[in-house]
Write the structure tokens for this entry.
Amino acid sequence: MSSVNLYSVEPQEPRPPAHLEIDSNFIQAYRKKVKESQKRFWSRFGVTQSRGSRFELGASIPKPVMILLRLYFEKIISEDDISYVSQVRPQARWPKVISQDLSSPFGSP
């Protein structure tokens, strides 16, 4: 058996270059190309329409938003990934009754 077969790797889908320049012009051009409103596009990243409009006009984009944009445009995260983490989750359920006995830190014996 040759060592080439032992270490063969499945070909992966090529990624866009990591140096993709994401700026206000790029974002605005992309959004218009896919015919998406500012409200719909920016809400995906947790940004209001008015704030997204300011970003498209050249306002500085905060690092967390820029990281999400980069991951999205480089196809590392998908529409489904963003939708999944954006869903409202039910609140954690805590016991309704907690021991009121304060004589012992561990409750009554």
Summary: The chain has a mean pLDDT of 80. Residues 24-86 form one domain.
